[in-house]
Amino acid sequence: MALRKRWIVLAVLLVIAAALAAGAWSNRGQIAYAQIATGYAAKQTCSCLHVSGRSLESCIADFPDSARNQITVTQDGETVRASVLFGAISAKAVAEGEYGCRLAAS
User: Fold this and answer.
1) Residues 46, 58: contact at Cβ < 8 Å?
2) Residues 94, 96: Cα–Cα separation, whole Å
3) pLDDT tens, residue by residue, 1-38
4) Stretch (H or E) spanning 49
5) What's the CA angle centered on 93, arms 67 and 24, to 5 degrees?
6) pTM of the model
7) Which of 1, 54, 83, 103 gets the most CB atoms within 10 Å of its CB?
8) Domain count, the chain
């Protein structure tokens, strides 16, 4: 009987793993879009703040309404971070004086 239970548990775990893999595969386009969007938001906001000299609120106002409600942008000195999905996908841009801003490893 214990062997039968183990096979049932294993089968259930395999079904769950397959469902998770299928979900990730079907959403790969949205994940790629979110990575691009956070990189763009971090770089643009960094340039807006450190090159143009505007405030964070003013820079965020440049984004479309739908993006403003989904992307979180924060500033910490010369570093700007943009994230979505509670930080699951994020990007970081760093101001480098006269050279402007660049994307950096998160």
Assistant:
1) no
2) 6
3) 677 888 889 999 999 999 998 887 887 788 888 899 99
4) helix 28-50
5) 55
6) 0.74
7) 83
8) 1
pLDDT tens, residue by residue, 54-77: 999 999 999 998 888 889 999 999
Question: Is residue 1 a part of any domain in this protein?
Answer: no
Average pLDDT value over all residues in the chain: 91
Look up residue 48 and give its amino acid. Answer: C
Q: Domain range spanning residue 97?
A: 32-106
Does any domain span residue 2? no
Residues 82, 41 contacting (CB under 8 angstroms) = yes
Looking at residue 27, its amino acid is N
Starting at the edge strand found earlier in the chain, the sheet holding 79-84 runs: 72-76, 79-84, 89-95, 101-104
Answer whether residue 4 is part of any domain.
Answer: no
Q: Are 48 and 58 in contact (CB under 8 A)?
A: yes
